[in-house]
Amino acid sequence: MDQSQFSEPTQRWLGEGRHVRAGDLNIFVYEKGSGPTVLLLHGFPTSCYDFRGVIDDLADAYRCVTFDFPGYGLSDKPAAYSYSLFQQTDIVEALASDLGLDEVHIVGHDVGQTIHAELLAREQERRLPFRILSSTILNGSTLQGKATITAFQKLLGSNESLPQAIAALDGLTQTYIPALQSLMKQPQTITEEDAKVMQELLAYQDGNRRLPSLSGYMRERLIHQDRWIGAFKATKSPIQIIWADGDPVANVEMGRELSKIVSQAKYTELKDLGHFLIIEDPPTVAGHLRSFLDSQ
Questions:
Q1: How many domains is the chain built from?
Q2: Could you tell me the pTM of the whole model?
Q3: Structural domain boundaries, residue 29
């Protein structure tokens, strides 16, 4: 799918952001508000569209910046690209330079949580070109070994079953929204319009065909767990964990374990929300973010 095939709601979303060149790629960026900068990092397999409700509730006091990682949403999705989490972190650095981000509060959800950790690791190595003022961790399986991964993730994660996963990619746009809703406690919060936009964002530049490459993050998390969990543990800036208790993948036991490991973090558990807490209840997530940010 290309932009000319987008429905009106997707065209409207496209028009609310802009594309920024980062390396050889066009990256879709969405900004709203003014004040201290909050950088929001989305997860797999969705896009920064997930954060729109949270941003609406923060933009009166904060400059909210989010974007689609390569391979996601409205950003470029080249076939000849590895989509390593290290590459994705490089994109964050490039965008920060282009957008003039010197100091940021970071919010990381799902895969964005792990890219967040790599940013912290680079800061601790004194090679990050901007300062991280605070960190908010939302549901995500940086503790990959404790995740209850979905059946499709299992297919993507195994060399033996990968051909079966690849064969299913063409039909994925039809099952995509029900699959996301199965991870939610409040699935009705994805409206018909949202579903249309989210399907088209996946299909843009054959994004459904990039999922096998994107899913390499699961292996990377296992290989580099000490680095990334260690970065959360070692950060000297304020950190909080907000965890939805109804997430069937990044389960609540994982959130509680992470809060024990990152013992300096403020831990908040949200009841009756699932993996996509930022879609399911944006005002509650934004309220906890605002309280934390305002206290800095």
A1: 1
A2: 0.96
A3: 3-294
